[in-house]
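Z., the sequence and structure:
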Amino acid sequence: MIPDAFRPALYAQLLYATLAIAWQLIGVALISSGRPPLGPTASLAVAFQGAIVAGLYVLALRRSPPLFVVLSVVSAAAAGATIATAFTADPTLWPSDARRYLGVAVNGVGLVALVLAIRGYVRWRRTEPAQRN
């Protein structure tokens, strides 16, 4: 059972995973058609990892909400690093500024998801132990 306090965070994490997977798959499709990817890289392996992480979010939340928060921190760290790269790496790595900022927006969802996970954890901890699950 997924605690109600975490539902917004879970939905945000699943949205982030879906967007990240779509980004990778679109990038791979663009490369295979001879066009540049959305961002500096595109990988089926990264898309697959995103799907695994999405499943881990659900599993962790059902078994251990604190583990869900830890996974959220790890995902947000990756999102933050990707956002930083968008502003520190050579801008010519992206086909356009619009795609670079779209990547920032996608990864911004990962940061929002962390905030929601922390908020969910605080709310979950405030509930009575018998009502947490």
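The radius of gyration is 16 Å. The CA atoms of residues 43 and 55 lie 19 Å apart.

Let me know what you think.
H.
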